[in-house]
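Sequence in, structure out. Go.
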Amino acid sequence: MFLSIQDLVAQFSSWVWGIPLLILLIGGGLYLFIYSGLVPFRYIGHAVAILRGKYDKADSPGDLSHYEALSSAIAATVGMGNISGVAIAIATGGPGAIFWMWVSAFVGMATKFFTCSLSVMYRGKDENGNVKGGPMYVITEGLGKQWKPLAVFFASAGLIGTLPAFQANQLTQTLIDVFQVQKENDFVAKLLLGITIAIIVALVIFGGIKRIGSVAGKLVPLMVVVYLVTVGTILILRIENVPGIFSLIFEDAFSGKSVLGGTLGVLIITGVKRAAFSNEAGLGTAPMMHGTAKTKEPIREGLVAMLGPAIDTLLVCSLTALAILASGVWKDFQGNGISMTLAAFDAVLPYNSGSVILTICVLIFAFSTLFTYSFYGFSCLSFLTNTKIGKNYNYIYILTIVIASIIKLDFVINLIDSAYALMAIPTVLSTLILAPKVKKEATKYFHKLKTNSFES
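Output:
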């Protein structure tokens, strides 16, 4: 029975990630990219100033500072998708898939600007009067109550899409590979690791959004710097391969000669799927976090959110891709996901130190995501029911960590990919309809910025 469920989920994932969804995600993002007039991209310096707290006000509505909101959103996106997901993209689509990840990241920056600006413009409130954000509130507050079925559709898909299955599965697999657990002990080891991970995550997520934001704010800078230094070392040691890597990525991007012999369309879909898994632009998760930011200026939060795909995909995913391609292990590697990345690090770094360093990175990346994702599922269930019932999502979340630790990777990927596809439909549709509202607000905001006429 489980095998038939696996097959059904795999078939659905393949079907839903077809050309129509590709047009919606990339086409919609490209439209927003052009429609913005590239104005937000000219204010990246201003976005950094916002991030540094220049415009923070203690009396603004919301729970998290701009920095904590972005850190928490990045903690959710800079995770196993950046280490394992990139390896899956290369294994499935070849080096050319990385180019389409980059394209998706650029349009994703525009998408994030619009979706996260909207998440502050159209915030909702729970029954206790606390500020809430996310596509479900954008739909009901921005489009009207008659659109609520679309909001319910998003929140229902979000209950599955925000489960920690992929992170728990790949974190467990990393530890199994590093410690070279014998095949006969595989199941017991994964189960024990899953229980241990679940206990650690529970200690943070039951503390609520403010504790999650605080922990994420400390973890994110650390994990990006450690990873940057490690991959930088790999590229220096294989510096002679680096120029050829970029040629390979660009040539393969348009050749359609993927590792599995797929067409150019398959190659593009692979890149877009893995980019969506990595930076989540257009999926609707980040707006839930950015919607809790302490600000009265929606455009301000949109600018901060726009930095997410740049850090996540253009920086961290690119680092992983360059490390794997520079090592050369991807050509003949009989495996997928985190196992390929581990092999790449070990092939270049001396004394098998690659496994140790990557394991440390994986622990930080995975736990930061595991801590943050629980808030997304809680938000979805709270919208569908109420806050009191929503808090029970954490128990489901913890149980999922244990189950995901012992099931197959392919099933996990197909399940989450399917849910992400369903989440993207209401998120992008509502964003495209309400985009003129954001543009109007942006015009007013940038005028106030130029004339320094913000309220004191």
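Check: The first helix runs from residue 2 to 16. The first strand starts at residue 124 and ends at 125.
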